[in-house]
Design a protein that fits this description.
de novo design (two linked rop proteins), 4 helices, mainly alpha
């Protein structure tokens, strides 16, 4: 990881790359609707983190990080739905669910800390 990237920025980027890989696998299995939802939510986490890092104010930063948090929660939902539908099981799926849970915790902590600094 380069020195100019922070942990959440790098984690969400790497997570998005893994989501894209899963998206491709799902499309090969003709699971188009679910794969589309997963791709949109899973890649937007990092996009919103990037926007937050360029925020014009603390309020803007909190807003963008809050959106990233919501997208991480949605991604977790789609991943669990895929796992629990018994359509496809994979160790990588469990790993992605674990990663999305970790992202949720990190983002939640960032938001909470930012709000505390704001008051």
């Amino acid at each position: 990881m380069s020195a100019d990237k922070n942990i959440i920025q790098e984690k969400t980027y790497q997570f998005a790359l893994k989501i894209i890989q899963l998206y491709r696998e799902m499309n090969a299995q003709k699971q188009f609707a679910l794969s589309q939802q997963l791709l949109k939510a899973g890649t937007s986490i990092g996009a919103n983190v990037e926007e937050a890092l360029g925020a014009q104010s603390r309020k803007d930063f909190i807003s963008k990080m809050s959106i990233a948090y919501k997208e991480a929660r949605e991604t977790n939902y789609w991943l669990r739905l895929r796992r629990d539908s018994n359509v496809y099981t994979s160790n990588s799926l469990e790993y992605l669910i674990s990663e999305s849970n970790e992202l949720n915790k990190i983002l939640s902590s960032i938001i909470k800390t930012s709000k505390e600094k704001n008051s």
